[in-house]
Amino acid sequence: MTAPAGDELRVAYVMSRFPKLTETFILAELEAMDRARVRIELYPLLRQTGEPVQPAAVRWVERAHSPPFLSPEIRRTHWWFLRDRQRRRRYLRAFFDMVQETWRSPNFLVGGLGIFPKVARAAVEMRAAGVDHVHCHFANHPALAGWLIHRLVGIPFSFTAHGSDLHVDRTMLPAKVREAAFVVTISGDNRTLIETTAGDPAAGKVDVIHCGVDPAAFALAQRRVAGPLRIVAVGTLHEVKGQIHLIEACHLLMGRGVDATCRFIGDGPDREALQARIDELGLTERVTLAGRMTSDAVAAELAAADVLAAPSVPTRGGKREGIPVVLMEAMAAGLPVVASRLSGIPELVTDGVSGLLVTPGDAAALADALARLAGDPDLRARLGAAGRETVMRDFDVDRNAAALADRIRRSLLEAEGGPAAADADEAPTPIAADPAA
After folding, report:
1. In sequence order, which residues have a C-beta less than 8 Å from that of residue 97 and are 6 or more positions away?
2. How far is CA 125 from the centre of its chain?
3. What are residue 41's phi and psi, to 5 degrees?
4. I need a labelling partner for 32 at 20 to 30 A (CA). Which of 51, 71, 97, 277 fits?
5. Per residue in 109-168, pLDDT tens?
6. Cα separation, 128 vs 34, whole angstroms
7. What angle do CA 320, 324, 329 make, to 5 degrees?
């Protein structure tokens, strides 16, 4: 096996759902990989429906491989695996090892059993198409799919761990790390967690490659120095985003006589509860739940605001964010940010330099930070400028996607002549024996 040149590298991407409006970081990475001349085959485990589609995602939707969970082609694929002794051995070992690794977690076990039929079909398609490497976004079921593909047909895989996919349930994580060509995570905080959980197999195998944004997509607007402080918060209306604490902070600001408004961009399960609290506190003229928006509309909201608030909190169920991409987007737009001192956020936001950090769940501290910005437009300008510089230096999507592509190429070179290459040689070559042919 040799590492392909830049215009020859073919990578299959696996993620939970596509196109998902809130997962702009995956779409941005796909676009950047495309600009880097990496050929992408897209394999979402589920086709997302019922929500707006980002304009840039349309062409990816059209080329995505989204087979049903069961079909005649999938049945033929499984028979193709079972009718040959070598293929049958790989197939049964992958299946039973998956069950053995996941039986303690109903979520992982049921999910694994559910995706196994279509993942087996996808594995054969990838092998026939000459896919060099599989990269999975999220450490849970997408990484399980990558592990299965590697077991079934020998294609090497890697995965990116983000936030709640890593923090809530780490079932099977050591096995995934052990068999992955390498592992990516978006923060040093996550790397420490992975290395602690996986132990020796993680040694030297986990790289931090930040998610990124395209700074050019977020224009620097002329910020006002007077008038009400316009606060914006972007994200799914869910406990992990901490919107309830921002609503409480807005109430505190009103009580102090600070002139401020707040717009929440997004939708989700907490919408009714948040609206009820807004009404209860008498904030209906000040706080608005504006609903979900495409990336272009979000960029316009950032351009019109004076500060972005990201009051993330750990949930009772263990969920927590990694580094919210909306912080990168706001900072790219030169917008000052107030965020929680949580997970990997301090790796993006330096308190007092490129933004303000507060204790998660502390509405009073959040109100203090916002009041400070309301009374100091020069501070807003300094934080905004430093934040944009940070994003351009360390969170540029093209630079970080290039780093991932280079890591994939390096892993292919490292595997040449090693165990991964031996696996690939043992794997079936279904171009001539494709069960759907």
Report:
1. 151, 175
2. 25
3. -110, 125
4. 51
5. 999 999 999 999 999 999 999 999 999 999 999 999 999 999 999 999 999 999 888 988
6. 21
7. 170
Sign of the C-alpha dihedral computed for residues 420, 425, 431 and 433 taken in this order:
negative
Identity of residue 402: A
Nearest 5°: phi and psi at 184?
A: -115, 145
The mean per-residue pLDDT over the stretch 281-305 comes to 94
3-state SS track over 308-347 = EEECCCCCCCCCCCCCCHHHHHHHHCCCCEEEECCCCHHH
Contacts of 190 (CB under 8 A, 6+ apart): 161, 162, 166, 208, 322, 343, 344
- Give CA separation, 65 vs 25, 61, 158, 159, in Å: 20, 9, 19, 19
Among 159, 137, 167, which Cα is nearest to 344's? Answer: 167
> Distance between CA 304 and CA 231 in Å, rounded?
9
- What residues are paired with 46 via a beta bridge? 17
Chain segment 256-272, per-residue pLDDT in tens: 999 999 999 999 999 99
Distance of CA 76 to the CA centre of its chain: 33
For residue 38, give the nearest of 405, 403, 400, 408 by alpha carbon: 405
Phi, psi of 230 (to 5 degrees): -95, 110
- Structure tokens given for 41: 């085959």
Q: What is the Cα–Cα distance from 361 to 153, expressed in whole angstroms?
A: 47
Report residue 306 CA to chain centroid gap: 26
- Residues 155 and 127: beta-carbon distance below 8 Å: yes
Name residue 197's amino acid: T
Contacts of 144 (CB under 8 A, 6+ apart): 98, 102, 108, 111, 112, 115, 172, 176
Q: Compute the average pLDDT of residues 188-193.
A: 93
Domains and CATH numbers, the chain: 10-212+397-426 (3.40.50.2000), 215-394 (3.40.50.2000)
pTM of this prediction? 0.89
d(CA 163, CA 271): 22
Give the phi and the psi of residue 150 in degrees, each rounded to 5: -65, -45
Cis peptide before 19 (omega within 30 of 0): yes
